[in-house]
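Quick one:
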Amino acid sequence: MLSNFGNEILLAARLLLGGAFVFAGLRNVQNATFLTQLMTTRGVPQARLMLWLGIVLQIVAGVLVISGVWTAAAALCLALFLIVATPMFHNFWDHQGPERASRINGFVGNVALTGGFLALAAQPL
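Output:
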């Protein structure tokens, strides 16, 4: 029965996955100063430039995923982005207590998102 709704389910997946990254990119614009400082303390070279490249990637690839244009390439770019960004921003191993639990949740969420993008990239469109 679900196969009758395959296109609609795939559209919903693209909207949810891509939309989350458009939103995240726009939110990161507002937090650029803080995120640049955080990335600098984590040893990222040219942290400001890397942050802005990441923001552009999140927004552009998110829009491409939503629109269904170059979906596989955009989904793979976002999966790679998550693989790089997740240990940097969700470093649960450096924290204890509630902060550690929060970071673990973010880490696991990003692992799941990576899986979603890989599945989306594998879909024939």
